[in-house]
Structure formats: structure tokens, C-alpha cells
Amino acid sequence: MTGACEMERIVLVRHIEGVPSPEDFRLERVPIAPLEDGQFLIANSHVSCDPGTRSRLSPGASYARPVMPGEPVDGFCIGTVVESLNPRFPVGQRVTATGWASHVVSSGRGYVMPLPALDVPDSLWLGVLGIPGMTAWFGLRRVAGLKAGERVLVTSAAGPVGTTAGQLAKRWGASEVVGVAGGPEKCRWLREVAGFDVALDYKTDDFEAAFAEAAGPGFDVMFDNVGNAMIDRALPHMKLFGRLVLSGATADYVTDRPPGLVNTREMIAKRLRMEGILVFDDLAGFAEAQAGMAALVRDGLVYREEIFDGLAQLPEAFCGLFTGASFGRRLVRI
Questions:
Q1: Which of 11, 72, 182, 195 has its CA 20 to 30 A from that of 204?
Q2: From the centroid of its chain, how far is CA 66?
């Protein structure tokens, strides 16, 4: 026995309308039940803040059932097995799992993965080697089918998915990568550190004109993390046989009435393809992709992290994803 008899977790207080606030969540302490055969106990070191979690905090359709008031929120985490009745997950094994909590009891079903030794910081398993990085990797490779010489547009480009997608596109032969982000600091970082060719600030008064100019001859690939308004803006600037990868919808998660698409005739005239990505479809390829991503990190692929201390900080850190306050991968260290 480890001596851990109690854990902290974040639960949903009420279903959320619009932009979430810290008051929508509650930190609670609950006893850890004795393990049953086949179970193991994970002590988490980090928990992540993911925009996609917002889609499950209101009633209605999402990629998974909504979290109900009073239930624990189910985000991504990384930790160490500290007690086990499952030979596949021995004590000392580092794993990624799900749960906004200090501890997770698991049977190994669902998204629970042992971590191989790839000589990277542990936090990266919730970033470029985790769901954000894998979304960028398979979004460009499998969904977009990116080819050398193509022009790529990335929205929410300063977020962990967008930053990774833009860098991968450049490394995989894109002729030009244009990013859209909010604020001069983020845009400057994208150009000077992450290697984007162009970074546009959507908060400026001349954004529409700057976007049209940067579109130039058009985009072969759009990697979108924002939602319908940005997609509709880009449709007239897509090239013939262009592909739109729908990775997230940060702007649309916080409204019950997201804007519609008007420029759909472009889909017909240019024979465009629009496809969403839910990266759990690609789990079988994770190990190879993660090894490849780790090599790219060692070769200079950059990332940003914002780390908060203590599980009690998680609601505030999460809510900042929807106000423009975040800049990089937001994690909470336990």
C-alpha cells in the first residue's frame, strides 16, 4: 500500500453557458477506494487544459457524452503507477491517462498508455507528444495529405496544436505557412521562434485586408482550430482541390449559436474537401509518430508551456483558454 487514502479532483458544478468561469467548477477531496483485481492507482504529476473539454461541459452532442453536474471532469493527465493489481501496469510505470485529479484509479481501459523512454521532459507527453502534437501530426499527414510545395494556413497558431502543425508543415516541405493568432507578442514569437513565414493578428483593425493579402495565390491546406467564422473567411482563398482540416472550434465551443458557413459554393467550384479529425482514430500509429516527434524536438522543434501549481488552479487555467490569456500549452503541476 502507498499510504494514499484520499485524492483531490475537480468536479463540474453546473452545465456551462458561454465562456466558462472558475465558479463553474469545484475542488473536492474524496477517499480512494481499495483496488479491485485488475486495477491500479496512478499518482498524477501534471494535468492538462484542453479547449475540446469545453464541448462536454454543456448538454448536447459532442465526441463523448457530456459531463453531468457533480461529476468529475475528465481531462488528460500524466503520472506514475503507485499501487497495482494489474501486471500490465506495474508500480513505477509512467503513464498518460485521463482525469482532472491528483490520483486516478484505472483498469487499463480507455486512454491509458505506458510511456516509452524517449529522453524528453515528462510534460511533453501532454503536449507535442500527446494529443495536441498527435492531432497536428495526423491532421497534416492523414487528413490533409500534405505535399511538398503547398501553402498552409493555420488558425489559433500560437496554441499547442497550431504551433506544432505550422512547424511540421515547414519541416515536411510546405512552401509557406501563414498563421493567425491574437496579439503582437504571439505573432512575433510565431515568426521569430517557431519559423512561420507570416503571422497575422486577428485583433488588429486591418486584419481582413492583411488576411486577403497573405492569402495571395491561395492555400492548399487550412488547419483550423477556431471554428466557422474563420473557415468561412478562408473558403474563397482555398486553391483548387484544397483540403480543410477541422481540428477544433475554440470560438464556437462557447456559444449555442455558432455562425453558419456562407461561402459553401467554393466547396463545389474548387472541389474542396473538409474533414474533421479526432485523433483517437490514430491510436495504432501513436508510438511511431511519438518517436518521430521526439526526434524533431531534439532537432529543435519548439514549444511553449504555461505551468500552474496546484490542482486548485486548474479551473482558472482552463478558463483562460477562452479569453485569449493563454500562450502555449497550459498544464497544472500537482
A1: 195
A2: 18
